[in-house]
Amino acid sequence: MSATDVGLPETALIVEEETRRRKPAKERMFRTGGSGDITKPTVGGLIGRYVLLVVVLVLVIGPFLWQLSTSFKGPGESLYTFPPNLIPAQPTVDNYRKVTDFIPVYQYAWRSLFVALVSVATNVVFALMGGYALACMKFPGKRIALGILFSTMLLPGEVTVTSNLLTVNGLGLANTLWGVILPGAIGAMNVLLIATACRMIPAEVLDAATVDGATTWQRIRHIVWPNVRGMTSVVAIFTFIGAWDDYLWPLMVITDPNNYTLTVGMAYLNSNFSPDPRLIAAGTIIALIPIIVLFSVTQRFFFSGVQEGAVKG
């Protein structure tokens, strides 16, 4: 829905004018590296660049490929060979079937999915409101609020575990999924990311919307949200991955195995009851599948959000 649909004609004209004026500058900056001069890389530079990319790719993808290969190897195959053998001689999917014999992996996965989706929803909504307030509104104590946000980012997560645990116990949320969700319902980094994206919106656009009679919620819905959707995708992806992979906090909050999330439940695969590395690898791959699917589907929005926060025309 455009600004004209909510009775803001002047705002719509300003938005269109700003879009036409700013877009070519961004495109020129990406084509010329930001300096205005098109430079042609040398042969040595290209070789060094690709060698570095290959080294980074091996370091990042190598462990994943080893785990994937191990999950399909049968009990008669050696796992620790040099050089590593990434192609199973007798590939099998029995390891994935055996995982369910040790833990109810799909029930754990549904609980982790619930925690991750609720965390994404709360972080996107609260970060959008907080980021808009910090970037586009004037109020007493604004700098103090920014200082508090920055200071919380300097603290390691382990420092706040005790206070968070006491808070969750005091609210009666211990041993529940809501107790897992509450401390991560809003992140300081997410608020600052959205605030950075909101600062790219011309003040004239918001001022024109205010003159046209738009309320705060109308400005957020029709002006701010369309301009920060890319950054909110970044916030959503990072929040989902963080909530899905979190292990320490669910381990401390949840004591009932019937409420375990996937990461806590997967710890049993590395216990004395199941020391087989093949099952551990199969369980790891199961836990990685949602992350891979999520990033494959949303990578276009992710990179547009990174561009949105890194470039200011």
TrEMBL record:
InterPro entries: MetI-like, MetI-like_sf. The chain crosses the membrane at residues 50-69, 108-132, 144-166, 178-202, 223-244, 279-297. Keywords: Cell membrane, Membrane, Transmembrane, Transmembrane helix, Transport. GO terms for biological process: transmembrane transport. It comes from Microbacterium azadirachtae. The gene is araQ_2. Coiled coil: none annotated. Signal peptide: none annotated. This is L-arabinose transport system permease protein AraQ. PROSITE patterns: ABC_TM1 (PS50928). The keyword Protein biosynthesis does not apply. Belongs to the binding-protein-dependent transport system permease family. Residues 109-298 form the ABC transmembrane type-1 domain. Gene3D superfamilies: MetI-like. Pfam families: BPD_transp_1 (PF00528). It is found in: Cell membrane. One of its GO terms (cellular component) is plasma membrane. The keyword Transmembrane helix applies.
